[in-house]
Amino acid sequence: MAPVSPDPEIHNPFQDRIVTIPNIICGIRFLGSLGLVGLALTGRAQLFAVFFTILMFSDWIDGRLARWLNQRSDFGARFDSFADSFLYAVLFFGLACLCGDVLKHESPWWLAAFLSYVLTTSAGLLKYGRIPSYHTYGAKISYWLILIGAISVLLGYSVWPFRIAMLSVTLANIEATVITSRLSEWRADVLSLRHLQAKQTIAATEEMQEEPLTKPGTDD
């Protein structure tokens, strides 16, 4: 019989590592977010937009490297989510400093996104003692929409990209909350609620197929 191929997620040699290339990039993003605070306080909207864009792309890069180098880890997933949350918090701080009037008039949109984040974070902490780190398709779409919306506001263009981004974030957080309610234990990198449901259906079907047709010691 041919040997069974090992599961890369189970036998990943970097699963429990802290110092990896993706995590180093993630750390740079965290430190760079602190630099954005200085740009916001000094009123440099264009520089803020440029460096925010660079830091957003660093998130895309470290995710790709984690997969290409097989350096995905539980710590990395949690650290990535924390660094992203901090970057988004700094973004709103920057928008408040640089575009306060615009942000004030858009409060229903960003407030909905903020409350949905509080909801999904609280759900994860209450159930697992950890912040969810699913990296769903919805979150990835929201990621790019946030970049477009933020740049549009910072450079004085339309506010509609920002509104669309906040709506996308709200929906992605609601999906993450539902995922948390469906999972029995903490997991990273759940692509979507649909994917989770499909996996759970397959697992349930396989479990039913493995059950014996008759119990030992009983007659037909």
How do the helices and strands line up, and which of them pair or pack?
Layout: H1 21-41, H2 45-68, H3 74-98, H4 100-105, H5 107-128, H6 137-154, H7 160-182, H8 193-210
Helix pairs in contact: 1-2, 1-3, 2-3, 2-6, 5-7, 6-7
Detailed description of the structure:
The structure is a single chain. The chain starts with 20 loop residues before the first helix and ends in a 10-residue tail after the last helix. The chain folds into two domains: 15-98, no CATH class; 100-209, no CATH class. Helix 6 (137-154) runs antiparallel to helix 7. The chain has eight helices and no strands. It is mainly alpha-helical. Residues 1-10 have low confidence and may be disordered. The relative contact order is 0.11.
Helix fraction? over 70%
Please tell me what the overall shape is: globular
Low-confidence stretches at least 5 residues in length (pLDDT < 50)?
1-10
Radius of gyration: 21 Å
Strand content: under 5%
Number of helices: 8
SSE string: HHHHHHHH
Biggest sheet descriptor: none
Number of strands: 0
How far from one another are the termini? 34 Å
